[in-house]
Amino acid sequence: MISPGAHRARLFQFERDTFAFAHELVWQYRFDAATGQMTTFRTDPPPTYYHRCFVMVRSVRQFFYHARFDPTLPAPDADTCRRLVRTIVSRNPRRASADPDRVVVPGYAGLRPFSQAWEPLLKVECGGAWESYFLRSHWRMVFPVWRQQQQRTAQRLERSVLAGGTPVVHLFRFPRVTVNHGILLFAATAADGALCFQAYDPNIPARPVELIYRHADRAFHFPRNHYWAGGKLQVIEIYRNWLY
Q1: How many Å apart are CA 202 and CA 22, to the nearest integer?
Q2: I want to staple 224 with a disulfide (CB 3.0 to 4.6 A). Which of 38, 97, 215, 230 is the partner?
């Protein structure tokens, strides 16, 4: 295994290295444009693939760290695909494989086309919903997250991304848990007193999203989308070391 920074020569590409399918929501959210008030209602029909956002971002990084796609080889059958996926997602999500040790996935140019072809299989093999609940970072939610800690987190995330890393972060609000979600960062730019991180959000597979750190208030902000009203939240990097 080698360090995450070893990906400098192979940068993460959203169109190649993410899942094509979406993480589904149990609840739908409606925001009043005038008041900003949010109302919720259950998804109908009920979702079939949900409570797996952390499973999905972990798996995306495991594919990035441990797989090598080769579109020049014949595409595999279902049994071979299942074996390849199980091998990849059983590997360490914190450390990358050296190139000779990567698992070769034949017939596809990247994870996105592979996931389009084998969506049901990937949903079964990448992990169950319980893996999103029994996550090391969830214990950290109950303790205060100070501004100085968020400043250090932003600096560490920026260094990691600029070195070619793909940090995974836990977004949450506590004690009123209005968001509890995982995304993967892959790019960062500095502008107008802020750090803007580009990210893969399993709830929004069609395009990258932004996570913004503002230096003035030493806090992270996540823009409004179809499941979050927008605003300030807490951020913890996960799959970083034995503690998280």
Answers
A1: 6
A2: 230
**DSSP helix/strand/coil, 177:** coil
The two tokens of residue 34 are 């005038």
Give the residue among 105, 31, 118 at the shortest CA–CA distance from 70. Answer: 105
Determine the Cα–Cα distance for residues 244 and 242; give it in Å rounded to an integer.
6
Taking every pair of Cα atoms in the chain, the longest distance, rounded to a whole number of angstroms, is 56
Torsion angle (degrees, nearest 10) of CA 188, 191, 194, 196 = -30
Q: How many CA atoms lie within 13 A of 184 on its CB side?
A: 31
Count of C-beta atoms within a 10 Å radius of residue 125 = 17
Output the six-digit token pair for 46.
Answer: 């009920």
Q: Domain coordinates of the chain in residue numbers?
A: 4-133, 136-238
Segment 67-89 mean pLDDT? 98
